[in-house]
Amino acid sequence: QVQLVESGGGLVQAGGSLRLSCAASGRTLSSYVMGWFCQAPGKGREFVAARGWYSLNTYYGDSVKGRFTISRDNAKNTVYLQMNSLKPEDTAAYYCAARKSAVSSRSVGYDYWGQGTQVTVSS
């Protein structure tokens, strides 16, 4: 089992930045793909970013390319999502997820999920 706990959400003005953290426990994540998804009220879960734990390859949703960065800290068993140049349309609950196979932008393929952290961007 893998437990994921997100933190770092909050209220920020448009153009500002936030860094979300996803702390993992239960087992090491060296064989896992880590992903970030977001869900706004009344909408489905949307792919934000993903990477293999030790991979240098990162993947991003079209709406966040050039603004968000996914990274990880091996020692802390933690994945981060650095969010820059935030826009009001980025307002959503953000979820961290893990899966054991190839990188995917589809939420249905992820086995473990955190409880989510809310990001609100004011205009």
Helical content stands at under 10%
Radius of gyration: 13 Å
Describe the global form: globular
Number of strands: 11
Element string (H = helix, E = strand): EEEEEEEEEEE
Tell me what portion of residues adopts beta-strand conformation: over 45%
Q: In this structure, how is the largest beta sheet organized?
A: 7 strands, mixed
| Number of helices, where a helix is a run of at least 4 consecutive DSSP H or I residues | 0
Mean of pLDDT: 94
Structural class: mainly beta
- State the distance separating the first and last CA atoms: 40 Å
Low-pLDDT parts are: none
Please specify the SSE layout and strand pairing.
Blueprint: E1 3-7, E2 10-13, E3 18-25, E4 33-39, E5 46-52, E6 58-60, E7 68-73, E8 78-83, E9 92-99, E10 112-113, E11 117-122
Parallel strand pairs: 2-11
Antiparallel strand pairs: 1-3, 3-8, 4-5, 4-9, 5-6, 7-8, 9-10, 9-11
What does this structure look like?
With 123 residues, this protein is mainly β. Helix content is 0%, strand content 50%. It has no helices and eleven strands. It is globular, with a radius of gyration of 13 Å. The mean pLDDT is 94.
Descriptive key words:
four-stranded antiparallel sheet, 123 residues, single chain, globular, mainly beta
Please provide a brief summary of the model.
This protein is mainly beta and 123 residues long. It has strands at residues 3-7, 10-13, 18-25, 33-39, 46-52, 58-60, 68-73, 78-83, 92-99, 112-113, 117-122.
